[in-house]
Amino acid sequence: SVPGIENLPCELQRNFQLMRELDQRTEDKKVEIDGLAAQYIESVKNMLPEERVEHLKKIQSAYSKCKEYSDDKVQLAMQTYEMVDKHIRRLDADLARFEADLKDKLEGSDFENPASQSLK
C-alpha cells in the first residue's frame, strides 16, 4: 500500500487501485506481444502467407488492447486529478470561511479592542 493513501477518500483509493490493475494488464499484454513477436520471427520462413497475416493480426490485436488499457488509465488519471482539484478548492473555500469567521470573532472581542477594556 502506498503511504498516506489510506487517508484519502474511498473513491480516490478505488481509482488508484484501478490504475494499478490497468498497469498490470498492460504489462501482461506487453509480455504476450513479445512472445508473439518472437514466435513470428522464429517461424515466419515456414509460414504460408495467410498464416503470416493471421499471426500479425494477433500481434496488432494485442497492441490495440494495450492502447485501450493505456487510454483507460489516462481517463482515470484525469478523473482523479479533477477529484483532487475539487477537494482542494473545497478546502480552500472552507479555510477562507474559517479565517473570516476567526477575524470577525477577534474584532468583536475585547482581546483586540483596548478602548472597550478601558471603558469597563
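Next protein, fold it too.
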Amino acid sequence: FIRQVHELSLQAVPILAVTGILLYIGAFSIGMGAVPWVVMSEIFPINIKGRDGSLATLVNWFGAWLCSYTINFPMTWSSYVNALAILFLIMVVPETKGRTLEQIQAAING
C-alpha cells in the first residue's frame, strides 16, 4: 500500500497483494488451522460424523474469522498469545496416534 500511495513500481502492487494472501493462508494452514480438521476426523463416531462435522466446520470458519478480525488486539497486549494457544493444545487436546476410535472416546469420557 505504501508503494501504491507513493506510486512506486505500481505493476508490483497486485503481485505483492496476492503473495501476502497466499503467505497468510499457508501460515494459517501450517499452524493452528488444521487442528479442528484433524481432531474432528478422529474423534467423531460414524453415526454423527456428518452432523457434528458440519457444526465443527462452522465453528472452525467462525473462529478463523474471529482470529483474523481481532489478531492485532492480543498482539498489542502480549506476544505470548501463541505460546498460550500451544499450551492449551498440549493440555486439553488428547493424543490420538496409534489409538482406535473406541480408545479415544474412552479417554475423553474418562
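About the second fold: The chain has a mean pLDDT of 81.
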